[in-house]
Write a structure and sequence with these properties.
Strand content: 25-35%
Helix content: under 10%
């Protein structure tokens, strides 16, 4: 009905062109959203700066409400992703080296996939030398056929409810107002349910970039 109203309001020679322009300009956005932010980080080449995280010693903690790396094309919601997306984690300015990048997704609903799970269907990069990656989303993680993972050191992904540090501190997917984050390295994933969400690999195994 919306398209019909546009068609009737335009001179006949312009109708089809105008409709194409309307469709082409339908807003689409990247979908890596920091916890507490109202808008996603700009894409399609998305940068997650270490300066937006919390650094404790050689640990860099990052918190997202939504984390998706999307491929170009239509999505489950009908929104179109115009270009292949990628994400690159960068180190904080100043300070010492980062050994562990510890990330959580707190459970916002995607405007594209309509899910709370994370879809990693593009390059997941790092410019942090020697950093291990720890990533949790209790609502599920899907690796698409376009996924590319960092090879700086190790990469750990889980649908755990929290990451336990070696001193007993907890980095939970549901942030606590009394949360205390420390310099201790991650030691284990923790689950609060006997039936956690799964990790899926779609079509074929994810790819590693050339070394």
């Amino acid at each position: 009905m919306f398209a019909e109203k546009i068609r009737r309001s335009l001179p006949p020679p312009l109708s089809i062109a105008a409709l194409l322009i309307v469709a082409y300009l339908t807003p689409a956005r990247a979908e890596v959203v920091l916890q507490g932010a109202n808008t996603p980080l700009p894409g399609p080449a998305i940068t997650v700066s270490g300066d937006v995280g919390l650094t404790k010693g050689s640990n860099l903690f990052q918190t997202f409400s939504i984390f998706n790396i999307l491929r170009a094309g239509p999505s489950a919601s009908g929104l179109v992703v115009p270009q292949q997306e990628s994400v690159t984690f960068t180190p904080p300015t100043g300070g010492g080296p980062i050994t562990n990048v510890i990330s959580r997704v707190t459970g916002g609903t995607s405007a594209f996939t309509l899910q709370k799970s994370s879809l990693i269907d593009g390059p997941f990069n790092s410019s942090i030398p020697g950093a291990n990656f720890w990533f949790i989303n209790p609502n599920g993680i899907i690796f698409g056929s376009n996924a590319v993972l960092p090879t700086t050191e190790s990469f750990h992904a889980s649908t755990a409810d929290y990451i336990k540090l070696s001193d007993g501190s907890i980095f939970a997917a549901t942030p606590s107002p009394n949360e205390v984050l420390t310099v201790a390295p991650p030691s284990a994933f923790g689950f609060l349910t006997a039936n956690p969400a799964g990790i899926q690999v779609v079509t074929r195994p994810f790819r590693e970039p050339p070394r």
